User: Which sequence fits this backbone?
């Protein structure tokens, strides 16, 4: 039957924090020492390999790679800090961050690194040992860091009962096999990322990057198999930390379907979201009904309540936590 499940999870911060916690301490909850150490080890490994290859090929002493010296943790932390600063201070060319021009200069950059050293770190920045990667994984170059971030997000905070699943398009117009084109998005071109977030705060508890490999669909919905919209939700929320705790998942019409809601309900999740009336198992009466502005039509069957409301256009909602009545 319809109804909001009883919540048995423990929401809130899961790590000890001092009362006067600083922004840097919060940042380091996610970008931990292991995260930085991974970058140090793999960047040095890759740069030294390139240096050895260059020396074997007879490169001159004036070549940029010949200037390489191993990076340390402090240097990598400073490098990350400057990258973050570049996201706030926008300049058209990298070299302009190191200009000494009185009008254009930003002293923190040339006081932290020389331009050549920054370019060396940028050129040889690496996150994984290439010998250990799976060539079928489009994210193999950043996979270890992605998993570290996901683990940090999940172990630092547990969301309250209401959570949401949604997709985001990170703007990117370069050459990339997994680049998506979604004309209705502001960015239009970019990398698609699926998130599960706490509804109240927007905290991103988990995510995955859509690569298209093996995720396109598990058959068609017409033969009772699962679309990527279905798989995306179950991949994010059907985990030991959330399953069986009475969480309620909110989503938009791209994800919602009776088949998905039934699977979530089987694992003690509530679910609610706008829905496409053409989805399989949606009431045909709702799709066929002609309504005037302000009219509301409800159907309840088993665990579902399906509601159609007419504003400027039809709006349909599917829910397992609301009963089919108008208040």
Assistant:
């Amino acid at each position: 039957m319809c109804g909001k499940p009883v919540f048995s999870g423990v929401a809130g911060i899961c790590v000890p924090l001092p009362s006067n916690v600083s922004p840097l301490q919060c940042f380091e909850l996610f970008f931990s020492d292991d995260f930085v150490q991974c970058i140090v080890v793999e960047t040095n490994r890759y740069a030294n390999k390139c240096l050895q290859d260059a020396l074997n090929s007879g490169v001159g002493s004036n070549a940029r790679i010949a200037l390489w010296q191993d990076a340390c943790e402090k240097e990598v932390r400073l490098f990350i800090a400057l990258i973050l600063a570049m996201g706030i201070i926008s300049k058209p060319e990298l070299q302009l961050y190191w200009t000494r021009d009185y009008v254009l200069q930003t002293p923190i950059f040339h006081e932290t690194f020389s331009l050549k050293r920054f370019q060396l770190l940028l050129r040889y920045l690496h996150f994984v040992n290439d010998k250990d990667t799976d060539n079928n994984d489009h994210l193999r170059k950043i996979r270890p860091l992605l998993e570290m971030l996901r683990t940090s997000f999940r172990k630092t905070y547990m969301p309250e009962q209401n959570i949401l699943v949604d997709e985001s398009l990170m703007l990117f117009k370069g050459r990339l096999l997994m680049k998506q084109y979604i004309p209705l998005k502001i960015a239009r071109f970019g990398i698609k990322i699926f998130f599960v977030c706490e509804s109240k705060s927007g905290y991103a508890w988990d995510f995955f990057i859509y690569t298209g490999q093996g995720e396109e669909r598990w058959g068609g919905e017409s033969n009772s198999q699962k679309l990527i919209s279905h798989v995306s939700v179950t991949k994010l929320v059907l985990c030991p930390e959330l399953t069986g705790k009475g969480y309620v998942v909110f989503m938009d019409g791209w994800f919602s379907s009776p088949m998905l809601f039934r699977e979530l309900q089987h694992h003690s999740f509530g679910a609610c979201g706008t829905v496409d009336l053409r989805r399989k198992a949606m009431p045909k009466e709702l799709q066929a009904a002609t309504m005037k502005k302000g009219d509301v039509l409800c159907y309840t069957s088993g665990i579902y309540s399906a509601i159609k409301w007419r504003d400027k256009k039809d709006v349909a909602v599917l829910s397992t936590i609301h009963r089919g009545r108008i208040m």
